[in-house]
Design a protein that fits this description.
By secondary structure, the chain is an alpha/beta fold. It has a single domain, classed as 3-Layer(aba) Sandwich (Rossmann fold). Helix content is about 40%, strand content about 15%. Helix 7 runs antiparallel to helix 9. It is globular. The structure holds S-adenosylmethionine.
């Protein structure tokens, strides 16, 4: 079997696993794990353009914040994000205390931008409303001591920031990681989607089925879900090393120096993961 065929077989078997996890796969897309409204009615056929545009306009998902769904029609996504950031700023003193408690418990592993995916055994950190262990705006220095953590994990977070903002978050992570500590970052693999669009290997069509055209499916990776930056393994490794981490390498989903690997099964098929370490000890 050629390397290309092996990659394709591996991809298809990961995809099959994901489909088993998503009972309504045909109507979902990878960002639906955030609770966003699916774009499609069930069934494998493409929707027509107007249906697609209407579904996109209506997409918004559900919030865990009381009254938030009721207020949604009156608040743009930007206003909602700003409201979360303000609420997170207000709760900073409480969050600092919670962070200290987490430190005391020891063996700190930080899951930054945890969203609805609180990981057991990790300190989950996100904006107010995500029900994380610690509510914190990742653009600010983390409320943890220097060199206190053994591992930091971010999955589908950096694409919601500019590359410069993402680098600032990684610098904060570098400070709190102990020498030898591991950072693992997963982002939607825009390179995978772009290659698939160009060569027509079916991956794009499998990951985002039912769009009126393949270009609309490709464009979602760059423009939808609040994405403001696009990544591939090369870019992610470059940025991680630029911050000071060493040995940045692309790792397959589910394979990690962190045991067990923290990756979310539903994310793996469209995600590129890079892992690196703080130099030393
Ligand atoms: C696409 S969701 C991913 C959630 C989770 N990691 C997952 O894979 O399901 C992106 C998450 O990043 C969080 N996020 C984005 N910017 C943030 C910031 N400045 N501070 C804290 N969290 C942030 C959002 O609140 C959201 O929960």
């Amino acid at each position: 079997m050629s390397a290309g065929t092996a990659r394709s077989v591996a991809h298809r078997s990961r995809l099959a696993a994901t489909r088993r996890l998503c009972s309504n796969w045909q109507m979902s897309n990878p960002e639906d794990a955030d609770g966003r409204t699916p774009l499609h009615a069930s069934g494998g056929d493409s929707v027509d353009l107007q249906q697609y545009l209407d579904a996109q306009a209506a997409a918004g998902g559900h919030s865990t914040i009381p009254l938030s769904d009721l207020l949604r029609p009156f608040m743009s996504p930007a206003v909602r994000l700003r409201a979360k950031q303000v609420a997170t700023a207000v709760s900073r003193p409480v969050s600092r205390r919670k962070a200290r408690d987490e430190e005391v418990a020891g063996g700190l592993k930080l899951h930054l931008g945890s969203g609805g995916n609180n990981l057991a055994g990790w300190t989950n950190v996100d904006l107010v409303g995500a029900r994380a262990d610690v509510a914190w705006d990742l653009r600010r220095p983390l409320p943890f001591a220097d060199q206190i953590a053994g591992a930091v994990f971010l999955e589908h977070v950096l694409e919601h920031m500019t590359v410069s903002e993402g680098m600032a978050v990684l610098r904060h992570a570098f400070r709190v990681l102990a020498p030898g500590g591991i950072i693992r970052v997963g982002v939607p693999d825009a390179g995978l989607y772009a290659r698939s669009y160009a060569v027509g290997d079916g991956i794009l069509d499998d990951l985002r089925p039912g769009r009126p055209t393949r270009m609309l499916a490709l464009g979602e990776v760059f423009q939808e879900h609040g994405h403001v930056s696009a990544w591939d393994g090369e870019t992610l490794a470059l940025v991680i090393e630029a911050v000071g981490f060493s040995g940045a390498v692309v790792m397959a989903g589910g394979e990690s120096q962190i045991v067990p690997a923290p990756d979310s099964a539903v994310r793996i098929p469209e995600t590129v993961y890079v892992e690196a370490a703080v130099p030393g000890p």
